[in-house]
Amino acid sequence: MKKLFLVAIALIGFAIVNAQDIxxxxxxxxxxxxxxxxxxxxxxxALGDNNxxxxxLGLRSGNGYDGFKLAGIYQWVWQLDGAFNWYAGAxxxxxxxxxDNVPSGVDDSExxxxxxxxxxxxxxxxxxxxxxLDARPELGFGDYRDDLDFxxxxxxRYRF
Length: 160
Hints:
Shape: elongated
Order of helices and strands: HEEEEEEEE
Radius of gyration: 18 Å
Structural class: mainly beta
Number of strands: 8
Number of helices: 1
Distance between the termini: 43 Å
Largest sheet: 8 strands, antiparallel, barrel
Strand order of the largest sheet: 1-2-3-4-5-6-7-8
Oligomer: single chain
């Protein structure tokens, strides 16, 4: 327990020493794949010098199904080197799936909630472009989505 406490104090100290200004706003796409949501509209809003909130909305429609997923993640951002940052966060969201034309004739649709973690790396170019790569484990709470999913995505955002 003492080691965990010392590690937590060290991480907080590291965050204070390496705090930097992050973009006030960034909007773009988060391109990944988790349960059929290949692309999400992504918006980031700075809440301080080294923390922000990220909101992602994914809409999908295909042959016999449609759905949406809305995620909100609170993130802490630390500078690695120059324009490279890494970040970690936690949050959650909700989503809904609707499958039509099911062979059994039963309408398989569900609204679910999930909790999520987030860890990633980003690069901020000299011009207003941000590229990121992150991993987001999501634990779903629903009838069909009641397991752990891993969402790995590439983010491309315009910073302003």
